[in-house]
Specification:
Helix content is 51%, strand content 22%. With 102 residues, it is an alpha/beta fold. The protein has a 4-stranded parallel sheet, sandwiched between helices.
């Protein structure tokens, strides 16, 4: 099963909204087998290595980007999904990232 983590400052409102948007997108496109979860940014460095894709609300710090790079975790702009501006770019990147896992 593929896994996506969405992180914001508290791991509550914003990230949960984006999680719901991603889940709706996946359902609409009949994509199954993807677990989408939210976390807060303080815990992200500890939990990130167990995920395949990272959807960020705030740009990744150097530490987080280093983890993504070293672990092969694709990072995706979640602000686009949150605001609806250029969200198709982020969804395309998610689809591409998921296709790499097969």
């Amino acid at each position: 099963m593929a896994s996506i983590v969405v992180a914001c400052g508290s791991g509550v409102a914003t990230s949960e909204t984006v999680v719901g948007d991603i889940q709706s997108f996946l359902e609409k496109h009949n994509i199954t087998g993807v677990d989408v979860e939210a976390t807060d940014f303080k815990q992200l460095a500890d939990v990130l290595p167990k995920y395949d894709l990272y959807v960020w609300i705030a740009k990744p710090t150097k530490e987080i980007q280093d983890i993504c790079d070293s672990q092969g975790i694709l990072d995706v702009n979640g602000v686009n999904i949150l605001t609806g501006a250029n969200d198709e770019d982020s969804y395309k990147k998610i689809l591409w990232g998921l296709s790499r896992l097969k």
